Fold each of these.
Amino acid sequence: MIEVPRGALTADEIAQTAEFFSFGTNDLTQTALGMSRDDSGTFLPAYAELEIVKKNPFATIDQTGVASLSRSLWRRATRPGRASSWASAVNTVATPSP
């Protein structure tokens, strides 16, 4: 399971032996954005008011940060014959919510 940014950035190395990846999006969000989900209720309302965040990053995938890491993981880890399944997985994670 890819849960930290370094995992996404070194996915090409991991893919040499891994048969599949899954994304730990809550942990990846916390480490990519440097914020705790457990404490987010104390600061997210103020961040939203100041437009630091547009949406709760724990309720929707952060397109600029976390989804970008997910797409990077896919590009780095794709092996011949695996592109369609990787693309499907990343599109599921990286597609903006309505």
Amino acid sequence: MNHKINVVQQDPFASPAACDEKKGEDTRVLELDAMDSGFTDFFLISSGTNERQTQAIADEVELRLKRDFGVYPNSVEGRRCSQYHTPNF
């Protein structure tokens, strides 16, 4: 079984809690059907009020997954502009 799925099964609230801690708004976890989606199992969506806050939210999610589960992103898109972040775990 994929380690990433095990992280979500162990603590499905770890990433949303990280968003909430940094005052993320409208945080949602979307679970995708494995039969329909071949590229990911989950999407975590959260909003911030400015670029600095979105960077803090993204950093906290990444830190928590590293610290608590030993999971590192394969790649991250949008980090430089801080308007969106799409880490691929």
Amino acid sequence: MCRARVSKLGITIENALKVRKAEDSATTDSLTGFPMRGRCIGIWKRNWRDGRRSNDPLTVLVLDLNGFKQVNDRFGQIEGNNLLRTFATALKESCREYDYAARIGGDEFVIVAPGMPPEAVAEIGERWQKIAADVASADLSGTRVVD
């Protein structure tokens, strides 16, 4: 009897882990490892409610890699994927520990930055814009992607 319960418990735990893995794969971009749009919306809503309650600012920045289509057209999807991974890594490294970065599709990313003072928004936006420009103008196969 005890062995049967342990067996059922093991199956229950195994099934719960499978469900968790399926949920993660449905909400995480496999290319960049970033959360996708659906998870981002939930995080944004929670931060928005928290900010309203505490009267703290909430900054949401949307970033787009200009010229990304040129990369895929000129160098192929593999190099385009490499560019997206490189950008995602650089973006994540530049975020504060409690900022939330997500890929919302294609070459578009969003940063949810709770508590960011309004005077810092322009500076941080410029920094992320520079990261995007640096990545987009990187050398791929010995040729500049964007002039």
